[in-house]
Write a structure and sequence with these properties.
This protein is an alpha/beta fold and 288 residues long. The protein has ten helices and eight strands. It has an eight-stranded parallel sheet. Helix 2 (53-63) links the parallel strand 1 and strand 2 (67-71). The longest helix has 29 residues, at 2-30. It is globular, with a radius of gyration of 23 Å.
Length: 288
C-alpha cells in the first residue's frame, strides 16, 4: 500500500509539474493590458518582420490596440478576423519618390487612389496614405501647385466615400534624401491650398524631430492639420524609452489635450529578442 501510495503521489506531482507551466502560459497569453482609453493605439506591420500579420494581430488584440497601420486591402480579412481596423491603409501609391508633385504620375495615381478609396470605404475603414514624391530639382512652389492639381483629382471622390487621404511627413536629412514634404510649413500650406476636410497630414514624430524639432509646440499650434501620428525613438528609430531623446509621455499628453480622437501608431524597429515586449513597453509609455 505504501508503494502504491508513493507511485500515486509521484504521478500527481508530475502531472502538476507538467500542467502548471501550460496554465501559466495560457494566463499570460489571455491577459490583457488595461489601457486608459485616451489614445487609440495602433502599430505598423512592417516593423515586425519575424511575425506574420496574423500573429501580430493576436498580440495587438491582447495588448488592447485598435488596429494595424500600413496594410494593403488584400489583408483586410485578417484584420477583421480579429476585430481590428486598418488604421492606415497603403498600396495606392506608386512609390514614395514618384508621387503627386510630378504631373506625369497624376493619371496613374488617380486610377490607383480611386480604386483604393473604394476598398477602404467598402471595408468600413477611413485612412489612406499618400506621399509628395522627391524634389528632383523642383522648387517648393512648383511642388505645391503640382500636388494641389493631382490631389484634387481624387479628393472629391474621397469626400463622397468618407475616406481621408493623409500625406506623410518624412525627414530628408537621414532617411529620405530629397523628399519634398519634409517640413510642417510646406505641408500645412499644401493643406490650406487643397482646402478639403478629407486631406490631412500624417505627422511622424520621429521624422520631424530629426528635421526640425520643436515637436510639442508644433502639435499645439497645428494639430488641426494632423490626422494621424507615428512614433519612433531618436536617434536610431528604435524603442521609445529612455534610451532615446524624445519625451513621449509629454508628447502624448499634448496630443490628448488637443482633443485628438484619431490613431497613434508605433513605428519603431524593436531591438529586443522578443519584439512584443518592446511594443508593450511603448504602449505603456504612450498610454497617458
Amino acid at each position: 500500500m505504501k508503494r502504491r501510495d508513493a507511485i500515486r503521489k509521484t504521478a500527481i506531482a508530475s502531472a502538476f509539474g507538467i500542467l502548471l507551466p501550460f496554465k501559466n502560459q495560457k494566463e499570460k497569453t489571455e491577459k490583457k493590458i488595461m489601457l486608459k482609453g485616451n489614445i487609440n493605439h495602433s502599430v505598423c506591420d512592417w516593423c515586425y518582420p519575424s511575425l506574420s500579420l496574423e500573429e501580430l494581430c493576436i498580440e495587438a488584440k491582447r495588448i488592447g490596440l485598435v488596429g494595424i497601420d500600413l496594410v494593403k486591402p488584400k489583408d483586410f480579412p485578417i484584420l477583421k478576423k480579429y476585430g481590428l481596423l486598418s488604421t492606415m491603409t497603403e498600396g495606392a501609391e506608386i512609390t514614395q519618390k514618384e508621387s503627386f508633385n510630378d504631373p506625369s504620375y497624376h493619371s496613374q495615381l488617380k486610377d490607383r487612389y480611386t480604386n483604393h478609396i473604394d476598398y477602404v470605404s467598402k471595408a468600413g475603414f477611413r485612412n489612406l496614405i499618400c506621399f509628395s514624391g522627391n524634389r528632383k530639382g523642383m522648387d517648393d512652389e512648383t511642388g505645391l501647385n503640382n500636388c494641389v492639381v493631382g490631389l484634387k483629382k481624387i479628393l472629391s471622390y474621397a469626400e463622397k466615400k468618407g475616406v481621408v487621404i493623409l500625406m506623410e511627413l518624412f525627414n530628408s536629412k537621414i532617411d529620405h534624401p530629397d523628399y519634398m514634404c519634409d517640413n510642417t510649413k510646406w505641408a500645412i500650406e499644401l493643406c490650406k491650398r487643397v482646402g478639403s476636410p478629407n486631406f490631412k497630414l500624417l505627422y511622424d514624430i520621429y521624422h520631424m524631430q530629426i528635421e526640425e524639432g520643436d515637436i510639442i509646440r508644433t502639435i499645439n499650434d497645428n494639430h488641426v492639420y494632423f490626422g494621424h501620428y507615428h512614433t519612433a525613438g531618436v536617434p536610431g528609430r528604435n524603442e521609445i524609452n529612455s534610451s532615446q531623446e524624445l519625451n513621449y509621455p509629454a508628447i502624448m499628453k499634448t496630443i490628448v489635450k488637443t482633443g485628438y480622437s484619431g490613431f497613434v501608431a508605433q513605428e519603431f524597429r524593436p531591438t529586443r529578442n522578443n519584439p512584443i515586449e518592446s511594443l508593450e513597453e511603448a504602449i505603456d509609455i504612450c498610454d497617458v
